[in-house]
Structures are given as structure tokens and as C-alpha cells.
Amino acid sequence: MGGSSTGVHDTVVNQLLTKMDGVEQLNNIFVIGMTNRKDMIDEALLRPGRMEVQLEISLPDEQGRVQILNIHTAPMREHNKLDSDVNIEQIAKRTKNFSGAELEGLVRAAQSSAMNRLVKPGGKVQQVDDEAIDKLKVTADDFDYALENDVKPSFGLRDCVSRVLEEGRLLIKETAAPDTRGFVRALLAGLPNTGKSFLAAQSAKDSEFPFIKVCTPEEMVGYSEAEKCAKIRKIFEDAYKSPLSCVIIDNIERLMDYSPIGPRYSNMVLQTLLVLLGKRPPQNHRLLVLATTSNEQFLYEADMLSVFSKVIRVEQLHSANHVMAVLEEANIFSEEEIKQIEDELRSRDGVSIGIKRMLELLDFVKQSEPKHRVQLLLDGIREAGL
């Protein structure tokens, strides 16, 4: 209802306003409106006394997904077409960020997978045995195939993000497992604005360790080298006191005052970090260290990469599909504009922009006139890749 230059938009809005708030308004009527594009609704309809209460219906949680899956699998269950190995609760756990429509599509894709077992490859049409159809059931393997190949959540974690978080979960398990050394040091490396700090923080949050401490350059601005070393040592000593601890060292090269001109850096801070990252925690104490860097080459030259047991590389948005996933969730552009942006990005040689830079660009684009937003976004993406 927004962005149209014709009189249709004004006519529809005026009719709704007349019914709700005009001379011939309807009294004692409870009006409920639904939309997928709140940004396109005329502001006059959202003012107090009209549709003043706005509720965002978020994606279903795990229990909600169980209910939705049960609804869509009920006909199969009723006609004994759902195999006993299908675990609805397990499927719900694996379908995080799926919408109701995507869950329905998943069930249909699983049904198609089961039907495809009766169809042999080849160009000839063949008669399908009625008895085989009667015995056909949708199995857990069909749902696995559908999840792997057919249905992906529009608002779900993309491959690069889920990969980093999955590796983070493995590191957490390694740290906590009683049959391991209990001292894990991982480095998240990538270009600036790729979301390394967020991914490290999310992994630390997922660990649910009783002690989590973040060491950042911002909190040490103005510190001398000796004060920085003392602060870093204090963080590690505090971590040793807890049986399970996680320390995040954010932007580790900035912590060492690194500058590419020279190059220059604080050797005292470097040596402090090398010693602490090489020292195992006391017995019966386990420690996970997550560090982030935007300059892996410097750490290599400083002989620091060797102290990390794992290096996880965080990528930029490097395809039109990645950008489209962000745009769909941002809910700024119309379907026609998204199609225009997608066509333009696919015609280019490639895309290269960090997720943080992308979000900042979207915040900037929001402030402009709607007719200029597409071009501003495309220009910003192009400039980020230069």
C-alpha cells in the first residue's frame, strides 16, 4: 500500500480510515490486519486510535515447530504412511529459523522423496505397482534428504556462519571433555567487518561456562605497556580460578598496538600473550581462549599462529545469495526492488562486503528517499569491494 504513484493507494487508505475513524465509522468492531511488509503500510493507519497496537509474529520456537509439523504430518499418520522412525521432536530441533510455510514445504519435499523411490530413472513411462504404493511410507531418510537438498530457511544461518558456530561448539566440547587436555586456543581470522567479534561472543555464550571474560583494546586505551600486560595477566589469573572458563581476546593485533607503518607493535604485550597462551591452566581447571584478528599475516610474521590450536577463517559476503538473504531479513525493499538488486549483483564479477559493513550500509540507505535506495545500496556494495 506504499510507494504507488496512482490513486489506488490513497483510495484504499481513505476507505480504511473512514471505516475505522470517519463520520460513518463502525463501532464495537475489533479490527485485525496482517502484513508481511509493515514498512509499506501508510503511517496514517498506524497512528493512535487506529491500528496502534502492532505485534510482530516471530518465527516459531521448537515447541511451535513440533505443533506445525504434527499438523502437516497428521494425514500421513492417519493413513499409516508415516514410518515409525520419523521423530517429529528431532526434526523440530534441526529446523531452527524455519517458518510455518517452510515446514510445510519440508513435509511435502519428504513426501516427494518417498514417491521418487518408486520411479526408476529413464525416459519411459512404466506402470507402478499398486501394492508398492500401498506399502510406501515416508521415512526419516526422506526428511533428511529434504533438509539437505530441498528446503533451506530464508532467515536461517547461512553456511559460513553455521560452520563457524559449529566449530565453536566442537571447541566447547573439547574444552569441557574430561578425556582432553582442557586447554583450547582458537583464532577467528578474517577481513574487517566480517562479524568475528559477534561469532566469538556467541560461541562463548553458547558454552554456558561459569566464567567468561572479554579482553578488548577499547578498555585499555591510554594504558602503558606495563599496565596492559598486568591487565591481561589479571584476566587469565581470574580465569584459572574457575573450573570452566572462557576468555575472548578481541582484535588481538590492536591490543599489541600494531601499525603497518614500520611495522610497529608492542613486543612486551606480544611476549605476554605468547607466554599466557602457551601456559596450561592449573590441574582440574579448563580454559577456552577465543581470539579475533583482522591481520592474520602479522600474527604469522610475529610467530603467534603456532600458539593457537585452531584457526577459523570468517568469510565476507561473497555471493549474490548471501546479500539477498540479508536484504530479505532487513525488510527495506519491495519484491521488485529485491529482484532488481539481485539481477544487478549477478551481472557483476563478484560481491565482497563484510556483514557489519552491509548492515551499516542498510542503516544509511534507510535514511534516503525510497526511489534512491536501490542505487545507493548497489553503489555502496561496489565501493566496499574496491
From TrEMBL:
The keyword Signal does not apply. Binds 1 Mg(2+) ion per subunit. Belongs to the AAA ATPase family. Transmembrane segments: none annotated. Its cofactor is Mg(2+). It is found in: Cytoplasm. SUPFAM superfamilies: P-loop containing nucleoside triphosphate hydrolases. It comes from Heterodera schachtii (Sugarbeet cyst nematode worm). GO terms for biological process: protein transport; vesicle-mediated transport. PROSITE patterns: AAA. It catalyses: ATP + H2O = ADP + phosphate + H(+). PANTHER family: VESICLE-FUSING ATPASE, VESICULAR-FUSION PROTEIN NSF. Gene3D superfamilies: 1.10.8.60, P-loop containing nucleotide triphosphate hydrolases (3.40.50.300). Required for vesicle-mediated transport. Catalyzes the fusion of transport vesicles within the Golgi cisternae. Is also required for transport from the endoplasmic reticulum to the Golgi stack. Seems to function as a fusion protein required for the delivery of cargo proteins to all compartments of the Golgi stack independent of vesicle origin. This is Vesicle-fusing ATPase. Its EC number is 3.6.4.6. GO terms for molecular function: ATP binding; hydrolase activity; metal ion binding. It comes from the Eukaryota. Coiled coil: none annotated. GO terms for cellular component: cytoplasm. The keyword Metal-binding applies. Residues 182-318 form the AAA+ ATPase domain. Keywords: ATP-binding, Cytoplasm, ER-Golgi transport, Hydrolase, Magnesium, Metal-binding, Nucleotide-binding, Protein transport, Transport.
